[in-house]
Inverse folding.
């Protein structure tokens, strides 16, 4: 009875906290009003986007859309690969249904939070100091930066898996690593790949970091075009990115269906 | 006990049962026998307050074929799972061959568990993996962690797995994903996994629940054979009284988490089962008779 | 007759060809190595440069704790916008993700456009969203919330539909069998299974909105992003790290809340 | 010309300090055995904010410089000057294109020495370019054309859109102008930080702010999206001259190398083909030699403003 | 047929079976009866090439209690699931009360399905939801979509759910999460869900596989009672020949996706079962005999 009332108390507290946060957030919200200039500017932007600057697609001297996309893919691919490998031990050890020691789980969760909180730009700075500006630094920054996100998402999804298969492995006397390989991996593999591919996509779009880092790729021209409001240029770059991401989606779908 | 176990086979089972027909003799024998699995004052209370087991004291000898019977929810699965510590008991201690599994840790615990095969009530297959991989997973206890991370099973293991699948008539599905199997086929994969494990004790939680009579017979014969030929101890939860009578050397009756019967098959009369399954059964029968 | 049967039962199927996975792995390997070569990956260079990194790390500690006072109010402002933006983003993401999940809607006529829309939403860069929203709503809180909403929608929906696709089909089957129409089928067969991942993604998006809400700066809504820029601009690394510490505190708090909420759902 | 005068004056004022600093550096360079010779030159540039066209191209400059210097050159583009400075500090970048404020901060950290300054065409009040080459530009206060704000003094209590506080044109110079008029740039007005001079103009057109500070003339960026921007807004005030972007080198580089780099850039600016390239990419017209003292004005403003701000 | 169905109960079943003892009479009767479920040339080939059903032609009448038997993997579940179109058949047509479910769409399909209850071999419970909610989910076909999105079940539904849980002896677990139940308890939840659905046809895929003899009896009696008292058609997959004999009015034997036997219980002799379960059974028995 006492335990139950404690649970109710804690639940009420949780609900009240969330409720309070919402009330606080919505209080003092200004009214939405549309600006007079909006039609003119938005239509200029949209019409610009829909008249992409085809001339930028290919330029014999290099430094065109195709080259930018290629560089971006190379950086994103390698960055994702590094992150994909580094995140595995973290996600495993931060899942509270795999590792039972609270301290280990807690430490790993903390580490993941810390990596996530660490701003991309500071990470970029660190690697620029180490290896100089350029694609290499970009790969390292993306590779390390993504560990926080992947580790969290994957460990969360490990925590939600069906444990019955795991039981069978426990019963055969498998140690945690073997259990992980045989009972957990096959179940989280689809999620793992989908997170990895999502991260790959994020990395392709990580224009800001790559722009800061001088890594080349499509990010810097995109930022430049946006800041001087060259919508035709923005349009063609976005088109390029969308086409590329769609292609990657298709290819990765094929790969995924093979691996899982 | 070992020798006795080996000489009995098939119909010979009856003779062995006769030997134990005297309850007193039975208990005396077990006291001097090699105590394989020992339950001392074991209780289990689930976090939500349900009582799973209540002060269980049992000893099971090498080579026995124990069948556990009881109503749904009586605690049969709980008892079985506490043997290899799939669930942590709340009180008491369980030891296997003199080693306390309750206190075992790390590699010691893994080794003890490796020697205990388990067939699960709800199969516990990795649905996304192939049948073969599910069966091979019974072998992981034998190899180094690194090897297992790379998924490198020796050739013998694969042959062993195929062998186990043959025994349950499922070899043609070896490379099919487990979720594409029928219910009975899934159960057979789970049995093959336990066979491939080459354990010294096998815990079987309703191993034939989803099987047709033919496969049931095959599986039970298989369990009996490995019990007798390899002197492997069997602890099996069964719902079928007929099967229990046919294969067991000893029957343990559970009710509400307590042992209400424990003795050789011969002692388990119809009245015994009636008392295990509670008064309801009698009431129910009376009702029907009244109509 | 007997022999035929024997052949049938004893026939051991050959294992599936390993070529496909090996080929795929080789392909990935080639791509990785190729990219590594293209961008000039080098471990020696990295090792050589590590001491340089240390120079910066030294400047980051200890954090300038007095700076907390300065960033508290922008942080609260950010949280406030993130709460609203993420909530609306999540509310929109839920149905959109359902439409995009192939095991909920089997027709590619439905999932295709939904996925395309989601791809599009994720592709739009923050700067472009900012340019649009500032033009439409002016500067301040409102475009900030809209930007965060868009952003959350993209993240949550994408992650969510993929995790919906990996749920247990059993309960869905049971709902089909009782004659539930699509909406009821989703409510009783899908939703109970996916609430936990949904909350996880929702809270994750919330967290991103708080720690990386640079877009707020772009629409003149302030936010903590501006302060990173400022402190880095002045090479005032102690302050930068105090922002990191502060954000970490907030994120850990969210993490704690999120675990508590998820515990109820798993 | 006006800007040059100002800078000359300030350099005389600070002569002593400056001399001392220079001698310090000289000894430092000597200690380092006449500085480093380079086998490869690494250049990075951050586009200046005061440009209305930009290209993220590096190759053309690479080729030009490598032709002039006879060593391989790599050029990279970054969108944030903080990273250049850090890279120069750890010897990862040799030559950086830095905006004035960034240069001053970099010099403070012994990361960069200025060798050149970019030249551009001046800007008429209506936003069009002049024929005259200058090495400085100005920032402007703009308000709506029909606004009743007619002088700097009227800005008191009004809502002003700034850029980040490290921006020369978007904050430092305008803030100094305000302070001269007796208005505290943060306390006496309602300040809003915006990202991008174009956004500032649009926020002004939207009526979200009463005045915007931008480089002269940022309205050119917006004119394609909002045709009447020049009619609908007016310039309230100009700031003092802001030095153009610098080209700065790592202090540890040998003097001969510095000289070679300097001459290479000047030659590119004078070469017809080279000029076209630097114009297209960086909107530079050429380069003139410069020295650290030219930036004392920046330090002065920086100090003045940052004392008030922090 | 209705009247006959109602008068038979318990032991009375035997009398009915006697009525049908003549195979000819049986077929004649079915031809004039109300053809409830009709299979026309139904085949099912799974995407991986496995043949599930091969050219099935069947008709099942109102109020019958059909038991389907066959080896594991014979296609019993496939047959059952094709009735309410949980799997799409590859060829042929299935109609229910004259309406083709194969061609039905939208609301029509939902309505047909609502009238068909199903008990699943592997339960298909939402493990995270409470027992009550799982049972209530059987009722969603009866209410407006909006109401169901809000989860507002009328009071009668809740009473009905409690009633169904009482029948399977599980009312005390009503508010426990489904994953905290024993195997048999989960199976009973799945039965309760089908009972609460108040369907006109019940498809049961091994409803008693994980149940103890007492509960098995209760559940089978329940199925029989609703079959007889409410004239609800039952199609049940069973592995136990004894149960099939005790409760069925008609037995259908499947082997490798084909109907190899179809007739009243009385006709299903031991030989029949032997032929359904294939020669292996005999072989197996012979083997044992030889030892
Ligand atoms: N989803 C699926 N994909 C491919 N093959 C399947 C699938 N489901 C079932 N099968 C195959 O179809 C055949 C018939 O399966 P079904 O489930 O109907 O058997 P069953 O008679 O119910 O057997 P059991 O008694 O074991 O439940 C089996 O060989 C099975 O492997
Ligand atoms: N994880 C759990 N949490 C809470 N209670 C549980 C849990 N698992 C089982 N129980 C309860 O413990 C009791 C015994 O369960 P157990 O699984 O041992 O029964 P069983 O004898 O195997 O029954 P069945 O024949 O139905 O499988 C049941 O009342 C069950 O509801
Ligand atoms: Mg059980
Ligand atoms: Mg089946």
């Amino acid at each position: 009875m006492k335990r139950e009332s404690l649970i109710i108390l804690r639940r009420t507290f949780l609900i009240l906290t969330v409720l309070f946060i919402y009330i606080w957030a919505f209080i003092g919200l200004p009214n939405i009003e549309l600006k007079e200039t909006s039609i003119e500017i938005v239509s200029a932007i949209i019409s610009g986007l829909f008249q992409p600057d085809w001339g930028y697609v290919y330029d014999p001297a290099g430094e065109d859309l195709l080259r930018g996309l290629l560089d971006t893919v190379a950086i994103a691919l390698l960055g994702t690969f590094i992150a994909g490998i580094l995140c595995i031990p973290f996600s495993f050890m931060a899942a509270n249904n795999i590792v039972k020691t609270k301290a280990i789980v807690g430490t790993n969760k903390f580490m993941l939070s810390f990596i996530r909180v660490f701003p991309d730009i500071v990470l970029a700075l660190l690697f620029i100091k180490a290896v100089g500006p350029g694609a290499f630094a970009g790969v390292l920054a993306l590779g390390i930066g993504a560990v926080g996100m992947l580790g969290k998402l994957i460990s969360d999804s490990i925590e939600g898996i069906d444990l019955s298969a795991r039981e069978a492995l426990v019963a055969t006397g498998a140690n945690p690593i073997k259990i992980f390989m045989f009972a957990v991996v096959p179940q989280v593999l689809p999620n793992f790949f989908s997170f990895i591919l999502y991260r790959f996509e994020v990395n392709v779009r990580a224009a800001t970091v790559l722009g800061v880092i001088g890594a080349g790729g499509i990010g810097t021209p995109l930022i430049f075009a946006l800041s001087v409001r060259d919508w035709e240029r923005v349009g063609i770059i976005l088109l390029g990115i969308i086409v590329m991401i769609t292609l990657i989606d298709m290819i990765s779908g094929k790969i995924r269906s093979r691996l899982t | 006990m070992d020798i006795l176990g080996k000489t009995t086979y098939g119909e010979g089972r009856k003779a062995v049962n006769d030997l134990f027909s005297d309850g007193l003799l039975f208990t005396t024998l077990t006291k001097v026998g090699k105590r394989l699995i020992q339950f001392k004052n074991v209780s289990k209370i689930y976090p939500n307050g349900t009582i799973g087991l209540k002060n269980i004291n049992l000893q099971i000898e090498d080579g026995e074929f124990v069948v556990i019977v009881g109503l749904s929810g009586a605690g049969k699965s709980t008892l079985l799972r506490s043997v290899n510590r799939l669930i942590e008991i709340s009180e008491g201690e369980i030891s296997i061959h003199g080693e306390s599994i309750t206190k075992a840790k790390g590699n010691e615990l893994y080794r003890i568990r490796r020697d205990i095969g388990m067939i699960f009530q709800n199969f516990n297959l990795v649905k996304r993996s192939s049948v073969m991989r599910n069966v091979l997973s019974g072998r992981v206890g034998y190899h180094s962690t690194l090897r297992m991370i790379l998924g490198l099973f020796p050739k013998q293991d694969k042959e062993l797995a195929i062998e186990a699948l043959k025994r349950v008539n499922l070899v043609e599905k070896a490379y099919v994903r487990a979720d594409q199997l029928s219910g009975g086929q899934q159960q057979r994969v789970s049995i093959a996994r336990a066979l491939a494990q080459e354990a010294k004790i096998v815990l079987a939680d309703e191993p034939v629940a989803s099987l047709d009579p033919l496969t049931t017979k095959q599986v039970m014969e298989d369990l009996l054979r490995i019990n007798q030929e390899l002197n492997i101890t069997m602890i099996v939860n069964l719902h079928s009284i007929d099967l229990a009578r046919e294969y067991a050397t000893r029957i343990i009756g559970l009710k509400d988490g307590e042992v209400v019967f424990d003795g050789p098959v011969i002692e388990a009369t119809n009245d015994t089962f009636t008392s295990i399954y509670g008064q309801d059964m009698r009431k129910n029968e009376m009702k029907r008779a009244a109509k | 007759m007997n022999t035929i049967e024997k052949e049938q039962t004893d026939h051991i199927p050959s294992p599936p060809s390993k070529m496909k996975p090996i080929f795929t792995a080789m392909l990935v390997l080639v791509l990785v190595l190729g990219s590594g070569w293209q961008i000039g990956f080098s471990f020696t260079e990295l090792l050589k440069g590590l001491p340089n990194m240390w120079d910066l790390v030294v400047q980051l500690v200890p954090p300038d704790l007095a700076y907390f006072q300065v960033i508290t109010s922008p942080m609260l402002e950010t949280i406030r916008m993130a709460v609203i933006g993420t909530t609306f983003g999540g509310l929109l993401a839920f149905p959109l993700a359902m439409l995009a999940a192939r095991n909920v809607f089997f027709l590619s006529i439905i999932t295709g456009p939904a996925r395309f829309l989601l791809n599009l939403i994720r592709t739009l860069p923050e700067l472009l969203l900012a340019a649009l929203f500032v033009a439409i709503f002016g500067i301040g809180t409102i475009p900030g919330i809209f930007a965060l909403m868009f952003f959350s929608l993209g993240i949550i929906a994408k992650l969510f539909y993929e995790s919906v696709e990996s749920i247990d089909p059993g309960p869905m089957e049971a709902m089909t069998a009782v004659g539930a129409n699509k909406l009821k089928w989703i409510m009783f067969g899908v939703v109970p299974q996916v609430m936990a991942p949904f909350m996880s993604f929702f809270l994750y998006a919330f967290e991103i909105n708080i720690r990386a809400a640079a877009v707020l700066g772009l629409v003149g809504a302030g936010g903590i992003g501006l302060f990173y820029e400022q402190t880095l601009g002045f090479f005032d690394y102690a302050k930068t790290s105090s922002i990191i510490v502060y954000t970490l505190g907030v994120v850990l708090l969210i993490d704690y809340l999120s675990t508590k909420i998820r515990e109820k759902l798993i | 010309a006006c800007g040059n005068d100002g800078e000359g004056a300030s350099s005389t004022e600070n002569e002593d300090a400056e001399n001392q600093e220079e001698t310090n550096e000289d000894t430092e360079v000597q200690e380092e055995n006449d500085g480093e010779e380079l086998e490869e030159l690494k250049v990075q540039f951050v586009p200046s904010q005061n440009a209305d066209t930009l290209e993220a191209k590096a190759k053309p400059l690479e080729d030009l410089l490598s032709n002039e210097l006879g060593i391989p050159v790599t050029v990279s583009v970054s969108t944030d000057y903080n990273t250049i400075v850090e890279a120069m500090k750890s010897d990862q970048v040799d030559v950086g294109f830095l905006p004035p404020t960034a240069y001053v901060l970099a010099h403070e950290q012994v990361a960069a020495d200025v060798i050149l300054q970019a030249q551009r065409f001046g800007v008429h009040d209506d936003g069009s370019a002049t024929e005259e080459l200058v090495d400085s530009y100005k920032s402007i206060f703009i308000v709506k054309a029909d606004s009743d704000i007619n002088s700097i003094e009227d800005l008191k209590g009004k809502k002003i859109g700034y850029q980040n506080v490290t921006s020369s044109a978007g904050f430092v110079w305008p803030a100094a102008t305000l302070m001269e008029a007796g208005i505290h740039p943060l306390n006496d007005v309602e300040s809003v930080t915006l990202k991008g001079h174009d956004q500032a103009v649009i926020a002004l057109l939207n009526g979200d702010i009463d005045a915007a500070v931008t480089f002269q003339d940022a309205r050119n960026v917006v004119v394609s999206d909002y045709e009447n921007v020049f009619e609908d807004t007016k310039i309230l005030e100009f700031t003092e001259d802001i030095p153009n972007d610098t080209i700065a080198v790592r202090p540890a580089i040998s003097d001969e190398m510095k000289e070679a780099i300097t001459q290479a850039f000047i030659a590119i600016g004078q070469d017809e083909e080279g000029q076209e390239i630097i114009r297209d990419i960086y909107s530079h017209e050429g380069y003139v030699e410069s020295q650290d003292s030219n930036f004392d004005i920046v330090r002065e403003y920086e100090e003045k403003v940052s004392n008030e701000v922090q």
